[in-house]
Write a structure and sequence with these properties.
Radius of gyration: 23 Å
Shape: elongated
Order of helices and strands: HHEHEEEEEEEHHH
Helix content: 40-55%
Largest sheet: 5 strands, mixed
Structural class: alpha+beta
Low-confidence stretches: none
Mean pLDDT: 83
Length: 246
């Protein structure tokens, strides 16, 4: 049986997680070994403080090993069944049902947009957060294997929000407003993320195209959080205006 799109992506995420968790474990073991070697002559089992310190190290080591084991187990389980990596914020169906729709559209070559949030040089492997748009779903990959599947018809508007308030001007977010909540993927390459937004606008109309995105994105974000009904009214009004003008 041919391997589906989600299964392939889950396997890639598992390999990445395996390398990451293994590297963290090796670094931790080396650090503990160094600390033990440097301080082995200083520890006194008859001293309660030293005994508590050693026990704390042992407990933390056990916790570290447990977290690594669980991380590998969870990503490995997703690798065996790519549908388990899906997050369905709208709960419109089972993971298997949604996964089959995504796999079918992927097999038909209907990935309209497939871009990473950060641009990458030619010859280098892409990594990090990623956005993929199919006819039925907008997929947000978090870089560690989890995939948020948003029905395309639930998306109100999206934009590249450059210059986050109170933070570095080099930070840019792909901000996605939906019927349920606002999602955000964060990067640093402003020009690249604007290009990603422009690609998505071909399939998800830029309802607020008459406004300055830099300014209105902050206002809409606040409105969406505090007065959702006002946001929806404004959105529907602008959508009607756009449809009448086209």
């Amino acid at each position: 049986m041919k391997e589906g799109f989600l299964a392939k992506e889950a396997k890639k995420a598992h390999k990445k997680s395996k390398r990451l968790f293994s590297a963290l474990l090796v670094i931790y073991v080396c650090l503990i070994g160094f600390v033990f070697f440097m301080g082995k002559d200083s520890f006194d089992w008859n001293n309660n403080d030293d005994k508590l310190l050693i026990l704390a190290f042992a407990a933390f080591s056990a916790l570290m090993l447990f977290c690594v084991t669980m991380g590998l187990f969870l990503t490995g389980r997703s690798a065996k069944n790519g549908y388990k990596s899906l997050i369905l914020p709208f709960q419109e169906g089972s993971k298997e049902a949604v996964g089959k729709v995504i796999d079918q559209e992927a097999s038909e070559g209907k990935a309209w947009v497939d871009e990473y949030i950060e641009a990458f040089s030619e010859g280098k492997k892409p990594k990090g957060e990623r956005v993929v748009l199919f006819p039925s779903y907008l997929l947000l990959f978090n870089g560690m294997g989890a995939v948020t599947a948003i029905p395309r018809d639930k998306v109100y508007w999206l934009c590249a929000q450059a210059g986050i308030e109170g933070r570095s001007s080099f930070i840019v977010r792909l901000l996605i407003f939906t019927e349920k909540k606002a999602f955000a993927l964060e990067g640093c390459d402003v020009g690249h993320l604007k290009q990603v937004a422009d690609q998505l606008y071909q399939y998800i109309p830029n309802v607020f195209c008459e406004y300055d995105t830099f300014q209105i994105s902050y206002e809409l974000e606040k409105m969406f959080d505090k007065r959702r009904e006002d946001f929806v009214k404004f959105y529907e009004h602008e959508k009607r205006q756009m449809e009448q003008g086209s």
